[in-house]
Amino acid sequence: MASQAEPGHDIGAPGRTWSVDGADDREVGRPTFGMRWRLWRNRRIASARFRSLMARLPLTRWIAQRKANQLFQLTAGFVHSQILSACVRFGILDYLVDRSLTTAQLATHCQLKPERMRLLLDQAERLGLVVQPHPDLWMLDDAGAVVAADAGLRAMIRHHDALYRDLIDPEALWRADKPDTELRRYWAYVRGDAPNEVTAEQAAPYSLLMRESQAMFADCILASYDFGHHTALLDVGGGDGAFLMAVGRKHTNLRLALFDLPAVAVRAQDHLAETGLLPRSRIHAGDFTTDPLPSDCDCITLLRILCDHDDARVVNILSNLHRHLAPGTTVMVAEAMAGPSEGARLAATYFGIYFLAMGSGRCRSAREIEALLSTAGFQKTQTIATANPLLATIVIARR
Ligand SMILES: C[S@@+](CC[C@H](N)C(=O)[O-])C[C@H]1O[C@@H](n2cnc3c(N)ncnc32)[C@H](O)[C@@H]1O
Known about the structure:
With 399 residues, the chain is of the alpha/beta class. It has helices at 33-46, 48-56, 61-89, 92-95, 103-110, 114-126, 142-149, 151-166, 170-175, 182-186, 200-212, 214-224, 242-250, 262-274, 311-324, 342-358, 366-375, and strands at 101-102, 130-134, 137-140, 232-236, 255-260, 281-285, 299-303, 330-335, 379-384, 393-398. Helices cover 50% and strands 13% of the residues. Bound molecules: S-adenosylmethionine (SAM). S-adenosylmethionine binds next to α11.
């Protein structure tokens, strides 16, 4: 039996069983070689003397430094995002588009003391947001150029203030079932059983954020899937119609339709009218978990929809679609999905916490989405990789 002295650690001797929790000493089987190696290795790494030796030996020094830097990145991540947030809030990155400016010029623009401006610019330079081609002259660096060019990214960075406030007490957040958080109030449709009653005031902030953040997302989807094979597209939970606009401009013969909650359908109508696409589009209002959806489109899209909801509700949504769509309809699910690539791992780490704070939904793998589609009765599921798994992976299926 495992030792009581060190719960869960007694896997040293060959043939011994081990416990996951010293308190109940449950037998869970023999440790594998990999587990023994990991324990041995962890004990070495936990030793300050061992780490000090590794940091001094020429052959291991670079590994020790890399590991120490990685750990520091983990510890300091919030500081990094706050530097980015300050740059966005002061409008530094937009102001630097297509020009170079001195610290004094930027300080005047941001109404900051020059020494504070200098400190912020130094930090932004360390994070790859700005560069100094000459002493005290600043230009955008690669990451800064992307943030400056993408209003949706800037909107998301500003929106993170609410997320960070929700994360302030991690223990309370992890213990709560349905946390009373800002994000849960913000995404009004995840609360309560009557999403149709979401008001125009509640729908406006999230719909605007989704509209602003569609540009990169739509590019990613349109580069990975050819909607030219279809004659009519229904974007379910299509928000203000930003994706319809992008796909409509690329495929000029495609008939367009959108389905969303009543408060959002009105916004989509106005937005598509402003952009001249309304004559090509039909707007439907309703609750996609219960209401009938039009069955005359040969393709429907669910973009950034399923991730917002728990599994039971996803099955409701998909079953309702299955009930109303015509046989042969292509269903596309596209959102950030968990997976082995670096982008997918980053996305899953981020969205895992975001949905925890929202009290609904999760970041699923493509395989999990395929399984949910199959449970609802869809067939021929297929996963399509995109160029940017941080933003989206695509799963398609047939009704
Ligand atoms: C995260 S947003 C995604 C919007 C859009 N697809 C995009 O990618 O920008 C989720 C959308 O689903 C809509 N929605 C949520 N619950 C709904 C329901 N029960 N019936 C219909 N639409 C719903 C919301 O109003 C919102 O527009």
